[in-house]
Amino acid sequence: MNGFSAIIWDCDGVLIDSEVIACGVMLDHFAALGYNMTLENFIIRFMGKNFRRICAEIAEESGIDIRAGFDEAAYKAEQYEAFEKRLQATPGVHEFLQGCKVPVAVASGSELARLHLTLDVTALRGFFGSHIYSADMVRNGKPAPDIFLHAAKQLRCAPETCLVIEDGIHGIHGAKAAGMEVWAYLGGSHMTPKAREAVLAAKPNRSFSTMRELAAAFHARQEQGLTAKAV
């Protein structure tokens, strides 16, 4: 069993505990336009998808054209204010990244400006340098593999040697389509039993609930890879 040459991280719900904040604000704005859903179901269905794809699915399902009436400026202002006041990094993620010996990247469905803001607020941006990638940079967002393949290419790592850390079913499917191993983080505040069940049904290669668990599993895997090479 080989070790990994890089780690590609989803951002929302993995590096930062943002899904309840972000999806809650978006759902409020959607409800004002006539589209209603529980927060739990909204997270399960749309988490990890970019805004264009979400609106397209809603229009196809309900006939409601969210984009036509959506006040993007008001939405972003409210969301960014909430991030600045309430957003926290996932416990233990700073320590993991400080000790990580392989290149890392972010591959997210969020727009780049939001990624920069949230990673700055949580003091995580410095770990990734220029390797912060948004689905806006590729043709197709998750569950397509495009964003993961783009990140691997920029890291100059073969896709099959990359580990993806995800918390959403669409990201898991996208990572698998890219030929990458994917581990699911189940410790975010949005992970209700129903959400956890949906993520595990996507069949990640491994799941974990704390960054300490991730560190133990990752370092064990790297040691196995070194042993295999020595033999």
Number of domains as seen in the coordinates: 2
Number of helices: 11
Cα end-to-end separation: 12 Å
Whole-number mean pLDDT: 94
Instruction: Write down how many β-strands occur, each being a DSSP E stretch of 2 or more residues.
Output: 6
Structural class: alpha/beta
Would you state the CATH class of the largest domain? Answer: Alpha Beta
Percentage of residues in DSSP E strands: 5-15%
The Rg value, from CA coordinates, equals 17 Å
CATH superfamily of the largest domain: HAD superfamily/HAD-like
Compose a concise summary of this entry.
The chain has 231 residues and is α/β, with parallel strands linked by helices.
Q: Notable features of this structure?
A:
DNA polymerase, domain 1; 231 residues; 6 strands; alpha/beta; Rossmann fold; 2 domains; 11% strand; 11 helices
